Amino acid sequence: MTAFVLKRLAVGLLTLLAASLVVFFVLEVLPGDPARIMLGMNASPEALHALRTEMGLDRPVALRYLDWLFGMARGDFGRSYTYSSPVLALVAERLAVSLPLALMALALSTAIAIPVGIYAAARHGRPSDTLAMGLAQVGVAIPNFWFAMLLVYVFAVGLRLLPAGGFSGWGVGLDGLWQGVKALLLPAVSLALPQAAILARVTRSAMLEVLGEDYIRTARAKGLPRRKVLWRHGLRNAMIPVLTILGLQFAFLLAGTIIIENVFYLPGLGRLVFQAISQRDLIVVEGVVMLLVAAIVLINLLVDICYAVVDPRLRSSR
């Protein structure tokens, strides 16, 4: 097991190094001058030169990349040109919104999808299976931003049960916690349902493949209850593709919520990246993207460890 984890860690470090090269040099070739964007089109050449020198833009690209890389290794992701604040401080502030939002959406998605997928697989070919997968197909097809606006119209404008947008922060005590959860509930649902539709279809397919195996027929022949066969013997052996999708979905929910955060006006990582790109604040974009890549590598490592827990055959060095 230790060799398994060390091998995955080495692959993750190589992935981070390759990602840093791609992120830095792709952003370097983008059009636009950060100094000119900050000072405006009418800035004097002297002011532009002074700001470029202060930002280090007059140095060779290779030296700037190495400084940035070794800075990240020390935990220094640089300082934002626009906000005049350390990138890590900006990320920590926005992560207080994006991380709970991603966790809430993932929990809702899993709670809906796995029972629906097992239910549909257990009733394969019946009208209930067709209905469940038809609803899942509708969930895959509906854009999440349209579904988000529909939720706002129904629950915020019509019923006035939940806020339509904004985030006032996590207050003190249970009341403050509930206010934060209420602000994130509609965004979490709008993110969770399309992901739940995908996960339900994957769970159903994995369960159908497992339910045709000999050991399932043996368990049924021994007289085990149907529920125990499905949940104990069937689901555990069908979990590898489900875990793969869960890992990918969490990475998407953490990094890919730009549209939903703009619909609900949430100050999360997605909005931070969107604003940094529009303001040509490259150091913020590079830092956030690398932190997200690191998060995805870590999530994939955890998924691989879960593979080994679910299927002991994967623990071998081979």
Automatic annotation (TrEMBL):
Membrane topology: Multi-pass membrane protein
Keyword Ligase: no
Gene3D superfamilies: MetI-like
Domain of life: Bacteria
Matching Pfam families: BPD_transp_1, BPD_transp_1_N
Family statement drawn from the similarity comment of this UniProt entry: Belongs to the binding-protein-dependent transport system permease family.
Identification of the protein by name: ABC transporter permease
UniProt lineage: Bacteria, Pseudomonadati, Pseudomonadota, Alphaproteobacteria, Hyphomicrobiales
